[in-house]
Amino acid sequence: MNTIRKNLNILRAVAVVTYKEWSAYRTHSMVSIWVGPIYFIVQYFIWSAAYGGKTQINGMDLAQIITYFGASTLIGYLTMDFADWNLQMLVRTGKFLTFALRPIHHRFFAFSQKVGHRVLGLIFEFIPCYIIFTVLFRVSLVPKYIGWTILSVMLAFLMNFYIHYILGMTAFWFTQSSGIRRVFDLLSGVFSGIFIPLVFFPQTLQKILFFLPFPYMSYVPVMVFTGDFALAGIRMDIPVIVGIQGLAVCITILLSEVIYRASMRRFNGVGA
Amino acid sequence: MSNKNKGKEVIKIRSHKRFRIKRYLTVYRECVKVAFASASTYRLNFLLNCTIMLLGDIIFPLITVLIYGSGAGFKGWTVYEVLLIQSIFTMSTAIADMTFHGVMWVTMDMVRNGNMEMVLILPIDTMFILMARTFSFEGIGLFIGGLTIFMVALFNISAPSILMWLQFIALFIIGVLVMLGIALIMAAISFKWIGNSRIPEIFGSIRSFGKYPQSIFPKSVVFATSILIPVAMIAYYPAAALLGRCNWEVFVVILPCFLFLLFGIYLYRYMIRLYQGVGG
Q1: How many other C-beta atoms are found inside a 10 Å radius of the C-beta of residue A162?
Q2: What is the ipTM of this complex?
Q3: Which of A25, A182, A196 lies closest to B63 in CB terms?
Q4: Are B35 and B85 found together in one domain?
Q5: Which of B52, B112, B228 best tests the A interface by mutation, with the highest count of A CBs <10 A?
Q6: B221 and B169 fall within a common domain
Q7: CB under 8 Å to A121, separation ≥6 — which residues?
Q8: Do the chains contact at B74 and A50, CB–CB below 8 Å?
Q9: Helices A106-121 & A62-79, crossing angle to 10 degrees?
Q10: What does the alpha-carbon distance between residue A207 and residue B182 come to, in Å, rounded to a whole number?
Protein backbone atom coordinates (compact mmCIF):
# COMPACT_ATOMS: atom_id res chain seq x y z
CA MET A 1 0.00 0.00 0.00
CA ASN A 2 2.85 2.34 0.90
CA THR A 3 4.57 1.58 -2.42
CA ILE A 4 1.43 2.49 -4.34
CA ARG A 5 1.04 5.73 -2.38
CA LYS A 6 4.71 6.57 -2.92
CA ASN A 7 4.43 5.93 -6.65
CA LEU A 8 1.27 8.02 -6.88
CA ASN A 9 3.09 10.87 -5.14
CA ILE A 10 5.97 10.58 -7.60
CA LEU A 11 3.56 10.49 -10.53
CA ARG A 12 1.74 13.57 -9.28
CA ALA A 13 4.99 15.47 -8.60
CA VAL A 14 6.49 14.71 -12.04
CA ALA A 15 3.17 15.41 -13.79
CA VAL A 16 2.77 18.78 -12.04
CA VAL A 17 6.34 19.81 -12.90
CA THR A 18 5.86 18.77 -16.54
CA TYR A 19 2.57 20.62 -16.67
CA LYS A 20 4.19 23.81 -15.32
CA GLU A 21 7.16 23.44 -17.66
CA TRP A 22 4.98 23.10 -20.74
CA SER A 23 2.55 25.76 -19.58
CA ALA A 24 5.28 28.25 -20.42
CA TYR A 25 4.82 27.16 -24.04
CA ARG A 26 1.03 26.88 -23.93
CA THR A 27 0.60 28.68 -27.25
CA HIS A 28 2.36 25.64 -28.72
CA SER A 29 -0.62 23.54 -27.63
CA MET A 30 -3.12 26.25 -28.49
CA VAL A 31 -2.18 26.01 -32.18
CA SER A 32 -4.50 22.99 -32.13
CA ILE A 33 -7.46 25.30 -31.52
CA TRP A 34 -6.94 26.53 -35.09
CA VAL A 35 -5.50 23.45 -36.77
CA GLY A 36 -7.98 20.87 -35.40
CA PRO A 37 -11.17 22.68 -36.50
CA ILE A 38 -9.68 23.59 -39.90
CA TYR A 39 -8.81 19.97 -40.68
CA PHE A 40 -12.22 18.98 -39.39
CA ILE A 41 -13.94 21.45 -41.75
CA VAL A 42 -11.95 20.01 -44.67
CA GLN A 43 -12.99 16.48 -43.69
CA TYR A 44 -16.59 17.63 -43.33
CA PHE A 45 -16.73 18.98 -46.88
CA ILE A 46 -14.84 16.02 -48.35
CA TRP A 47 -17.16 13.46 -46.81
CA SER A 48 -20.33 15.48 -47.41
CA ALA A 49 -19.37 15.60 -51.10
CA ALA A 50 -18.27 11.95 -51.16
CA TYR A 51 -21.55 10.71 -49.73
CA GLY A 52 -23.62 12.75 -52.20
CA GLY A 53 -27.03 11.12 -52.03
CA LYS A 54 -25.76 7.86 -50.48
CA THR A 55 -27.05 6.93 -47.07
CA GLN A 56 -24.27 4.50 -46.16
CA ILE A 57 -20.75 3.68 -47.32
CA ASN A 58 -19.00 0.66 -45.84
CA GLY A 59 -21.63 0.49 -43.10
CA MET A 60 -21.14 4.08 -41.95
CA ASP A 61 -23.58 6.92 -42.53
CA LEU A 62 -22.51 10.55 -42.96
CA ALA A 63 -23.42 11.61 -39.41
CA GLN A 64 -21.40 8.70 -38.03
CA ILE A 65 -18.36 9.57 -40.12
CA ILE A 66 -18.50 13.24 -39.09
CA THR A 67 -18.69 12.14 -35.46
CA TYR A 68 -15.84 9.73 -36.19
CA PHE A 69 -13.49 12.51 -37.34
CA GLY A 70 -14.55 14.84 -34.52
CA ALA A 71 -13.97 12.13 -31.90
CA SER A 72 -10.73 11.06 -33.58
CA THR A 73 -9.34 14.61 -33.36
CA LEU A 74 -10.38 15.02 -29.73
CA ILE A 75 -9.16 11.60 -28.57
CA GLY A 76 -5.87 12.30 -30.37
CA TYR A 77 -5.33 15.29 -28.07
CA LEU A 78 -5.73 13.06 -25.02
CA THR A 79 -3.53 10.19 -26.16
CA MET A 80 -0.79 11.98 -28.15
CA ASP A 81 2.69 10.79 -27.23
CA PHE A 82 6.32 11.61 -27.86
CA ALA A 83 8.05 9.31 -25.37
CA ASP A 84 10.03 7.87 -28.29
CA TRP A 85 11.54 11.26 -29.16
CA ASN A 86 12.46 11.92 -25.52
CA LEU A 87 14.02 8.53 -24.91
CA GLN A 88 15.95 8.59 -28.16
CA MET A 89 17.33 12.03 -27.29
CA LEU A 90 18.39 10.84 -23.84
CA VAL A 91 20.17 7.79 -25.26
CA ARG A 92 21.87 9.71 -28.08
CA THR A 93 23.13 12.50 -25.83
CA GLY A 94 24.14 10.12 -23.02
CA LYS A 95 21.75 11.75 -20.55
CA PHE A 96 19.95 8.45 -20.07
CA LEU A 97 22.73 7.46 -17.66
CA THR A 98 21.46 9.95 -15.06
CA PHE A 99 18.06 8.25 -15.25
CA ALA A 100 19.58 4.79 -15.00
CA LEU A 101 21.12 5.84 -11.67
CA ARG A 102 17.92 7.25 -10.19
CA PRO A 103 15.79 5.20 -7.79
CA ILE A 104 12.87 5.38 -10.21
CA HIS A 105 12.19 3.42 -13.36
CA HIS A 106 12.65 5.71 -16.37
CA ARG A 107 9.52 4.34 -18.01
CA PHE A 108 7.45 5.33 -14.99
CA PHE A 109 9.08 8.76 -15.03
CA ALA A 110 8.26 9.14 -18.76
CA PHE A 111 4.70 7.99 -18.12
CA SER A 112 4.27 10.58 -15.36
CA GLN A 113 5.60 13.24 -17.75
CA LYS A 114 3.04 12.18 -20.31
CA VAL A 115 0.24 12.49 -17.75
CA GLY A 116 1.28 16.09 -17.00
CA HIS A 117 1.67 16.93 -20.68
CA ARG A 118 -1.71 15.53 -21.61
CA VAL A 119 -3.46 17.34 -18.76
CA LEU A 120 -2.18 20.45 -20.52
CA GLY A 121 -3.56 19.00 -23.77
CA LEU A 122 -6.90 18.46 -22.07
CA ILE A 123 -7.11 22.10 -21.01
CA PHE A 124 -5.64 23.87 -24.03
CA GLU A 125 -6.58 21.50 -26.85
CA PHE A 126 -9.38 19.09 -25.96
CA ILE A 127 -11.78 21.43 -24.14
CA PRO A 128 -11.56 24.41 -26.58
CA CYS A 129 -11.88 22.11 -29.60
CA TYR A 130 -14.76 20.21 -27.99
CA ILE A 131 -16.59 23.52 -27.50
CA ILE A 132 -15.87 24.57 -31.12
CA PHE A 133 -17.05 21.24 -32.53
CA THR A 134 -20.23 21.07 -30.48
CA VAL A 135 -21.27 24.74 -30.26
CA LEU A 136 -19.96 26.16 -33.55
CA PHE A 137 -20.16 23.11 -35.84
CA ARG A 138 -23.07 21.51 -33.97
CA VAL A 139 -21.56 18.05 -34.09
CA SER A 140 -23.00 15.64 -31.56
CA LEU A 141 -20.00 14.52 -29.54
CA VAL A 142 -21.60 12.67 -26.67
CA PRO A 143 -20.29 9.11 -26.37
CA LYS A 144 -22.94 6.42 -26.53
CA TYR A 145 -21.36 4.52 -23.64
CA ILE A 146 -19.48 7.03 -21.50
CA GLY A 147 -17.91 4.45 -19.15
CA TRP A 148 -16.64 2.19 -21.93
CA THR A 149 -15.38 5.20 -23.88
CA ILE A 150 -13.37 6.51 -20.91
CA LEU A 151 -11.92 3.02 -20.37
CA SER A 152 -11.07 2.63 -24.05
CA VAL A 153 -9.42 6.09 -24.19
CA MET A 154 -7.36 5.20 -21.10
CA LEU A 155 -6.25 1.98 -22.78
CA ALA A 156 -5.39 3.91 -25.95
CA PHE A 157 -3.42 6.33 -23.76
CA LEU A 158 -1.42 3.37 -22.39
CA MET A 159 -1.09 1.76 -25.82
CA ASN A 160 0.29 4.95 -27.35
CA PHE A 161 2.73 5.38 -24.50
CA TYR A 162 4.07 1.82 -24.48
CA ILE A 163 4.35 1.59 -28.26
CA HIS A 164 6.22 4.90 -28.45
CA TYR A 165 8.44 3.88 -25.56
CA ILE A 166 9.32 0.66 -27.38
CA LEU A 167 10.14 2.75 -30.46
CA GLY A 168 12.33 5.00 -28.35
CA MET A 169 14.20 1.94 -27.08
CA THR A 170 15.39 1.21 -30.62
CA ALA A 171 17.86 4.03 -29.93
CA PHE A 172 19.82 1.60 -27.71
CA TRP A 173 20.64 -0.31 -30.91
CA PHE A 174 20.58 2.36 -33.64
CA THR A 175 21.41 5.54 -31.64
CA GLN A 176 19.78 7.70 -34.34
CA SER A 177 16.32 6.19 -34.74
CA SER A 178 14.51 9.20 -36.15
CA GLY A 179 13.97 7.37 -39.47
CA ILE A 180 12.26 4.45 -37.73
CA ARG A 181 10.10 6.86 -35.76
CA ARG A 182 9.04 8.70 -38.89
CA VAL A 183 8.16 5.46 -40.66
CA PHE A 184 6.13 4.34 -37.66
CA ASP A 185 4.33 7.69 -37.40
CA LEU A 186 3.40 7.38 -41.03
CA LEU A 187 2.13 3.81 -40.67
CA SER A 188 0.22 4.58 -37.50
CA GLY A 189 -1.37 7.61 -39.17
CA VAL A 190 -2.73 5.41 -41.93
CA PHE A 191 -3.50 2.18 -40.08
CA SER A 192 -4.83 3.62 -36.82
CA GLY A 193 -7.66 5.24 -38.76
CA ILE A 194 -6.68 8.88 -38.25
CA PHE A 195 -6.92 9.73 -41.95
CA ILE A 196 -9.75 7.41 -42.96
CA PRO A 197 -11.86 4.83 -41.07
CA LEU A 198 -10.29 1.39 -41.34
CA VAL A 199 -13.47 -0.10 -42.83
CA PHE A 200 -12.49 1.60 -46.10
CA PHE A 201 -9.42 -0.62 -46.44
CA PRO A 202 -9.49 -3.98 -48.29
CA GLN A 203 -10.92 -6.83 -46.18
CA THR A 204 -7.64 -8.79 -45.98
CA LEU A 205 -5.77 -5.76 -44.68
CA GLN A 206 -8.51 -5.14 -42.12
CA LYS A 207 -8.09 -8.72 -40.85
CA ILE A 208 -4.32 -8.27 -40.52
CA LEU A 209 -4.85 -5.00 -38.63
CA PHE A 210 -6.58 -6.90 -35.80
CA PHE A 211 -3.16 -8.35 -34.92
CA LEU A 212 -1.24 -5.06 -35.13
CA PRO A 213 -1.16 -2.34 -32.45
CA PHE A 214 -2.39 0.47 -34.72
CA PRO A 215 -6.20 0.11 -34.42
CA TYR A 216 -6.00 0.03 -30.63
CA MET A 217 -4.31 3.45 -30.60
CA SER A 218 -7.13 5.42 -32.24
CA TYR A 219 -9.69 3.45 -34.26
CA VAL A 220 -11.00 1.33 -31.38
CA PRO A 221 -11.59 4.20 -28.89
CA VAL A 222 -13.20 6.31 -31.62
CA MET A 223 -15.56 3.48 -32.64
CA VAL A 224 -16.34 2.81 -28.97
CA PHE A 225 -17.17 6.51 -28.74
CA THR A 226 -19.62 6.16 -31.63
CA GLY A 227 -21.04 3.05 -29.94
CA ASP A 228 -20.72 0.73 -32.91
CA PHE A 229 -17.58 -1.28 -33.65
CA ALA A 230 -16.91 -3.11 -36.91
CA LEU A 231 -13.70 -4.21 -38.62
CA ALA A 232 -13.04 -6.78 -41.34
CA GLY A 233 -16.76 -7.43 -41.56
CA ILE A 234 -16.84 -8.48 -37.90
CA ARG A 235 -19.25 -6.54 -35.72
CA MET A 236 -18.45 -6.71 -32.00
CA ASP A 237 -20.16 -5.66 -28.81
CA ILE A 238 -18.41 -2.73 -27.14
CA PRO A 239 -17.34 -4.67 -23.97
CA VAL A 240 -15.78 -7.36 -26.17
CA ILE A 241 -13.65 -4.99 -28.25
CA VAL A 242 -12.59 -3.04 -25.15
CA GLY A 243 -11.58 -6.39 -23.62
CA ILE A 244 -9.51 -7.21 -26.72
CA GLN A 245 -7.97 -3.75 -26.54
CA GLY A 246 -7.06 -4.41 -22.88
CA LEU A 247 -5.45 -7.71 -23.89
CA ALA A 248 -3.45 -5.94 -26.63
CA VAL A 249 -2.26 -3.37 -24.07
CA CYS A 250 -1.17 -6.17 -21.67
CA ILE A 251 0.83 -7.86 -24.45
CA THR A 252 2.46 -4.53 -25.34
CA ILE A 253 3.39 -3.90 -21.69
CA LEU A 254 5.03 -7.33 -21.49
CA LEU A 255 6.86 -6.72 -24.75
CA SER A 256 8.03 -3.35 -23.49
CA GLU A 257 9.43 -4.97 -20.32
CA VAL A 258 11.29 -7.64 -22.30
CA ILE A 259 12.83 -5.03 -24.62
CA TYR A 260 13.67 -2.75 -21.68
CA ARG A 261 15.64 -5.55 -19.98
CA ALA A 262 17.46 -6.31 -23.21
CA SER A 263 18.19 -2.58 -23.60
CA MET A 264 19.64 -2.35 -20.11
CA ARG A 265 21.93 -5.29 -20.81
CA ARG A 266 23.16 -3.41 -23.87
CA PHE A 267 23.41 0.08 -22.39
CA ASN A 268 26.84 1.51 -21.51
CA GLY A 269 27.49 4.90 -19.98
CA VAL A 270 30.25 6.86 -18.28
CA GLY A 271 30.57 10.16 -16.46
CA ALA A 272 27.22 10.77 -14.80
CA MET B 1 25.17 65.73 -68.11
CA SER B 2 25.69 65.23 -71.83
CA ASN B 3 23.89 62.48 -73.71
CA LYS B 4 27.19 60.63 -74.12
CA ASN B 5 27.83 60.60 -70.35
CA LYS B 6 24.24 59.54 -69.67
CA GLY B 7 24.72 56.64 -72.04
CA LYS B 8 27.90 55.60 -70.25
CA GLU B 9 26.10 55.76 -66.87
CA VAL B 10 23.27 53.52 -68.15
CA ILE B 11 25.80 51.00 -69.51
CA LYS B 12 27.60 51.05 -66.14
CA ILE B 13 24.38 50.38 -64.19
CA ARG B 14 23.38 47.59 -66.57
CA SER B 15 26.78 45.90 -66.33
CA HIS B 16 26.62 46.24 -62.53
CA LYS B 17 23.19 44.55 -62.52
CA ARG B 18 24.48 41.81 -64.82
CA PHE B 19 27.44 41.28 -62.50
CA ARG B 20 25.11 41.12 -59.48
CA ILE B 21 22.84 38.54 -61.12
CA LYS B 22 25.89 36.52 -62.16
CA ARG B 23 27.23 36.67 -58.60
CA TYR B 24 23.90 35.51 -57.18
CA LEU B 25 23.75 32.67 -59.65
CA THR B 26 27.29 31.61 -58.69
CA VAL B 27 26.36 31.68 -55.00
CA TYR B 28 23.23 29.61 -55.66
CA ARG B 29 25.20 27.09 -57.75
CA GLU B 30 27.72 26.69 -54.94
CA CYS B 31 24.95 26.14 -52.40
CA VAL B 32 23.38 23.48 -54.63
CA LYS B 33 26.79 21.78 -54.88
CA VAL B 34 27.12 21.79 -51.08
CA ALA B 35 23.60 20.32 -50.75
CA PHE B 36 24.54 17.59 -53.22
CA ALA B 37 27.80 16.84 -51.37
CA SER B 38 25.89 16.66 -48.10
CA ALA B 39 23.28 14.30 -49.56
CA SER B 40 26.07 12.12 -51.02
CA THR B 41 27.85 11.91 -47.67
CA TYR B 42 24.76 10.89 -45.68
CA ARG B 43 23.40 8.66 -48.44
CA LEU B 44 21.36 6.33 -46.25
CA ASN B 45 19.73 9.19 -44.36
CA PHE B 46 19.04 10.92 -47.69
CA LEU B 47 17.43 7.84 -49.22
CA LEU B 48 15.39 7.15 -46.08
CA ASN B 49 14.12 10.71 -45.90
CA CYS B 50 13.32 10.73 -49.63
CA THR B 51 11.34 7.51 -49.21
CA ILE B 52 9.49 8.74 -46.13
CA MET B 53 8.58 12.02 -47.82
CA LEU B 54 7.38 10.10 -50.85
CA LEU B 55 5.28 7.70 -48.77
CA GLY B 56 3.99 10.52 -46.57
CA ASP B 57 2.61 12.51 -49.44
CA ILE B 58 1.00 9.65 -51.30
CA ILE B 59 -1.39 9.17 -48.37
CA PHE B 60 -3.79 11.73 -49.78
CA PRO B 61 -4.04 10.03 -53.17
CA LEU B 62 -4.48 6.76 -51.26
CA ILE B 63 -7.43 8.21 -49.36
CA THR B 64 -8.94 9.39 -52.64
CA VAL B 65 -8.52 5.93 -54.13
CA LEU B 66 -10.14 4.35 -51.05
CA ILE B 67 -13.08 6.78 -51.19
CA TYR B 68 -13.68 6.08 -54.88
CA GLY B 69 -13.00 2.36 -54.33
CA SER B 70 -15.88 2.22 -51.87
CA GLY B 71 -18.29 3.46 -54.55
CA ALA B 72 -18.38 7.07 -53.35
CA GLY B 73 -16.79 10.09 -55.05
CA PHE B 74 -16.97 13.80 -55.77
CA LYS B 75 -19.80 14.71 -58.13
CA GLY B 76 -18.50 15.70 -61.57
CA TRP B 77 -14.97 14.47 -60.87
CA THR B 78 -13.49 11.11 -61.79
CA VAL B 79 -10.88 9.52 -59.57
CA TYR B 80 -8.13 10.37 -62.09
CA GLU B 81 -9.15 14.01 -62.22
CA VAL B 82 -8.92 14.24 -58.43
CA LEU B 83 -5.60 12.40 -58.53
CA LEU B 84 -4.39 14.93 -61.07
CA ILE B 85 -5.07 17.76 -58.61
CA GLN B 86 -3.33 15.92 -55.79
CA SER B 87 -0.31 14.96 -57.90
CA ILE B 88 0.14 18.60 -58.94
CA PHE B 89 -0.07 19.57 -55.28
CA THR B 90 2.61 16.98 -54.47
CA MET B 91 4.94 18.22 -57.22
CA SER B 92 4.48 21.81 -56.14
CA THR B 93 5.24 20.87 -52.53
CA ALA B 94 8.35 18.98 -53.67
CA ILE B 95 9.67 22.01 -55.56
CA ALA B 96 8.96 24.18 -52.54
CA ASP B 97 10.72 21.70 -50.23
CA MET B 98 13.78 21.67 -52.45
CA THR B 99 14.06 25.39 -53.07
CA PHE B 100 12.54 27.62 -50.40
CA HIS B 101 10.72 25.78 -47.60
CA GLY B 102 13.96 25.66 -45.61
CA VAL B 103 13.84 29.43 -45.14
CA MET B 104 11.12 29.04 -42.52
CA TRP B 105 13.02 26.50 -40.42
CA VAL B 106 16.36 28.26 -40.65
CA THR B 107 14.82 31.65 -39.78
CA MET B 108 13.00 30.15 -36.81
CA ASP B 109 16.19 28.46 -35.63
CA MET B 110 18.38 31.53 -36.06
CA VAL B 111 15.94 33.87 -34.34
CA ARG B 112 15.63 31.47 -31.42
CA ASN B 113 19.38 30.97 -31.11
CA GLY B 114 20.06 34.68 -31.61
CA ASN B 115 22.51 34.26 -34.47
CA MET B 116 20.49 35.87 -37.25
CA GLU B 117 23.03 38.71 -37.45
CA MET B 118 25.57 36.21 -38.75
CA VAL B 119 23.55 36.24 -41.95
CA LEU B 120 22.55 39.88 -41.84
CA ILE B 121 26.19 41.03 -42.00
CA LEU B 122 26.83 39.07 -45.21
CA PRO B 123 27.13 41.23 -48.33
CA ILE B 124 24.18 39.52 -49.99
CA ASP B 125 20.41 39.61 -49.76
CA THR B 126 19.35 37.80 -46.56
CA MET B 127 16.26 36.16 -48.02
CA PHE B 128 18.20 34.91 -51.02
CA ILE B 129 21.13 33.47 -49.07
CA LEU B 130 18.84 31.67 -46.61
CA MET B 131 16.93 30.09 -49.48
CA ALA B 132 20.15 29.12 -51.24
CA ARG B 133 21.72 27.66 -48.12
CA THR B 134 18.67 25.55 -47.35
CA PHE B 135 18.42 24.06 -50.83
CA SER B 136 17.71 20.37 -50.35
CA PHE B 137 17.62 17.39 -52.66
CA GLU B 138 15.37 15.42 -50.30
CA GLY B 139 12.22 16.62 -52.07
CA ILE B 140 13.28 14.80 -55.22
CA GLY B 141 11.65 11.54 -54.09
CA LEU B 142 8.45 13.42 -53.47
CA PHE B 143 8.63 15.04 -56.90
CA ILE B 144 9.14 11.68 -58.61
CA GLY B 145 6.18 10.25 -56.67
CA GLY B 146 4.00 13.20 -57.65
CA LEU B 147 5.14 12.99 -61.25
CA THR B 148 4.31 9.27 -61.41
CA ILE B 149 0.75 9.85 -60.15
CA PHE B 150 0.51 12.82 -62.53
CA MET B 151 1.45 10.61 -65.49
CA VAL B 152 -1.03 7.90 -64.46
CA ALA B 153 -3.80 10.50 -64.11
CA LEU B 154 -2.83 12.12 -67.40
CA PHE B 155 -3.11 8.86 -69.33
CA ASN B 156 -6.63 8.44 -68.03
CA ILE B 157 -8.03 11.82 -69.01
CA SER B 158 -8.57 13.22 -72.49
CA ALA B 159 -5.33 14.55 -73.99
CA PRO B 160 -4.83 18.27 -73.28
CA SER B 161 -4.13 20.66 -76.15
CA ILE B 162 -0.96 22.76 -76.42
CA LEU B 163 -2.86 25.81 -75.15
CA MET B 164 -3.99 23.84 -72.12
CA TRP B 165 -0.38 22.80 -71.44
CA LEU B 166 0.78 26.40 -71.67
CA GLN B 167 -1.97 27.50 -69.30
CA PHE B 168 -1.03 24.67 -66.94
CA ILE B 169 2.66 25.63 -66.89
CA ALA B 170 1.88 29.29 -66.23
CA LEU B 171 -0.59 28.50 -63.46
CA PHE B 172 1.70 25.87 -61.93
CA ILE B 173 4.50 28.45 -61.66
CA ILE B 174 2.08 30.95 -60.09
CA GLY B 175 1.02 28.19 -57.65
CA VAL B 176 4.66 27.67 -56.64
CA LEU B 177 4.92 31.43 -56.07
CA VAL B 178 1.91 31.20 -53.73
CA MET B 179 3.79 28.48 -51.83
CA LEU B 180 6.75 30.88 -51.63
CA GLY B 181 4.46 33.57 -50.25
CA ILE B 182 3.19 31.14 -47.60
CA ALA B 183 6.76 30.10 -46.67
CA LEU B 184 7.84 33.74 -46.27
CA ILE B 185 4.80 34.62 -44.16
CA MET B 186 5.53 31.62 -41.92
CA ALA B 187 9.18 32.68 -41.65
CA ALA B 188 8.13 36.26 -40.86
CA ILE B 189 5.79 35.07 -38.10
CA SER B 190 8.65 33.11 -36.53
CA PHE B 191 10.39 36.46 -35.77
CA LYS B 192 7.64 37.25 -33.29
CA TRP B 193 6.29 33.82 -32.32
CA ILE B 194 9.67 32.54 -31.32
CA GLY B 195 10.48 28.84 -31.48
CA ASN B 196 6.98 27.65 -32.27
CA SER B 197 7.60 24.66 -34.51
CA ARG B 198 3.86 24.29 -35.07
CA ILE B 199 3.56 27.39 -37.28
CA PRO B 200 3.74 25.20 -40.44
CA GLU B 201 0.78 23.19 -39.14
CA ILE B 202 -1.35 26.34 -39.21
CA PHE B 203 -0.60 26.96 -42.87
CA GLY B 204 -0.61 23.23 -43.64
CA SER B 205 -4.22 23.10 -42.51
CA ILE B 206 -5.12 26.02 -44.81
CA ARG B 207 -3.20 24.48 -47.70
CA SER B 208 -5.22 21.27 -47.35
CA PHE B 209 -8.14 23.09 -48.99
CA GLY B 210 -6.07 23.20 -52.15
CA LYS B 211 -5.82 19.42 -52.46
CA TYR B 212 -9.41 18.83 -53.52
CA PRO B 213 -11.80 20.03 -56.24
CA GLN B 214 -13.05 23.44 -55.18
CA SER B 215 -16.58 22.50 -56.22
CA ILE B 216 -16.95 20.47 -53.01
CA PHE B 217 -16.55 23.62 -50.90
CA PRO B 218 -19.14 26.38 -50.39
CA LYS B 219 -18.68 29.67 -52.27
CA SER B 220 -17.37 31.53 -49.21
CA VAL B 221 -14.57 28.97 -48.80
CA VAL B 222 -13.75 29.11 -52.52
CA PHE B 223 -13.54 32.91 -52.26
CA ALA B 224 -11.10 32.58 -49.35
CA THR B 225 -8.99 29.91 -51.05
CA SER B 226 -8.91 31.81 -54.36
CA ILE B 227 -8.60 35.44 -53.31
CA LEU B 228 -7.55 35.84 -49.67
CA ILE B 229 -5.06 32.98 -49.31
CA PRO B 230 -4.99 31.62 -52.87
CA VAL B 231 -4.12 28.00 -52.06
CA ALA B 232 -6.47 26.84 -54.82
CA MET B 233 -3.84 28.09 -57.28
CA ILE B 234 -1.32 25.52 -56.01
CA ALA B 235 -3.05 22.58 -57.65
CA TYR B 236 -6.72 23.08 -58.45
CA TYR B 237 -6.44 25.80 -61.10
CA PRO B 238 -3.43 24.23 -62.89
CA ALA B 239 -5.33 20.93 -62.99
CA ALA B 240 -8.44 22.73 -64.23
CA ALA B 241 -6.32 24.12 -67.08
CA LEU B 242 -5.25 20.62 -68.12
CA LEU B 243 -8.82 19.39 -67.87
CA GLY B 244 -10.12 22.24 -70.02
CA ARG B 245 -12.18 23.59 -67.13
CA CYS B 246 -10.50 27.00 -67.14
CA ASN B 247 -12.74 30.03 -67.39
CA TRP B 248 -12.44 33.77 -66.75
CA GLU B 249 -12.29 33.09 -63.00
CA VAL B 250 -8.71 31.89 -63.33
CA PHE B 251 -7.52 35.21 -64.69
CA VAL B 252 -9.21 37.04 -61.83
CA VAL B 253 -7.38 34.81 -59.35
CA ILE B 254 -3.91 35.46 -60.79
CA LEU B 255 -3.63 38.99 -59.42
CA PRO B 256 -4.31 38.02 -55.75
CA CYS B 257 -1.58 35.37 -56.11
CA PHE B 258 1.04 37.96 -57.02
CA LEU B 259 -0.24 40.30 -54.32
CA PHE B 260 0.01 37.45 -51.83
CA LEU B 261 3.62 36.78 -52.83
CA LEU B 262 4.50 40.48 -52.62
CA PHE B 263 2.91 40.63 -49.19
CA GLY B 264 5.04 37.64 -48.09
CA ILE B 265 8.25 39.29 -49.37
CA TYR B 266 7.35 42.63 -47.82
CA LEU B 267 6.45 41.07 -44.46
CA TYR B 268 9.66 39.03 -44.32
CA ARG B 269 11.85 42.02 -45.18
CA TYR B 270 9.95 44.16 -42.69
CA MET B 271 10.53 41.61 -39.91
CA ILE B 272 14.22 41.42 -40.79
CA ARG B 273 14.43 45.19 -40.38
CA LEU B 274 12.78 44.90 -36.97
CA TYR B 275 15.19 42.18 -35.85
CA GLN B 276 17.57 43.19 -33.12
CA GLY B 277 20.61 41.16 -32.13
CA VAL B 278 23.53 41.62 -29.82
CA GLY B 279 26.44 40.01 -31.53
CA GLY B 280 25.48 36.41 -32.42
Answers
A1: 24
A2: 0.84
A3: A196
A4: no
A5: B52
A6: yes
A7: A29, A77, A78, A80
A8: yes
A9: 130
A10: 42
Residues B199, B74: one domain?
Answer: yes
How far is residue B125 from each of residues B12, B79, B106, B119, measured CA to CA in Å?
Answer: 21, 44, 15, 9
Q: Give pLDDT, residue A177.
A: 67
Q: Are residues B90 and B175 in the same domain?
A: yes
Claim to verify: residue B36 and residue B142 sit in the same structural domain = no
Closest CB from B69, B197, B212 relative to A46:
B212
CA–CA separation, A122 vs A117, rounded Å? 9
Counting the structural domains of chain B, the total is: 2
User: Which residues in chain B touch residue A46, judged by CB atoms under 8 angstroms apart?
Assistant: 67, 212, 216
Question: Is B185 within the bounds of a domain?
Answer: yes
Give residue B23's domain range.
1-41
- pLDDT tens for B109-155 read 898 888 888 888 888 899 999 999 999 888 888 898 899 999 999 99
Q: Which of B63, B67, B202 sits opposite A35 (nearest CB)?
A: B202
Helix (H) or strand (E) holding A61: strand A60-61
Q: How far apart are CA A246 and CA B254, in angstroms?
A: 55
CB pairs under 8 A between A and B: 80
Question: Does residue A272 surpass a pLDDT of 70?
Answer: no
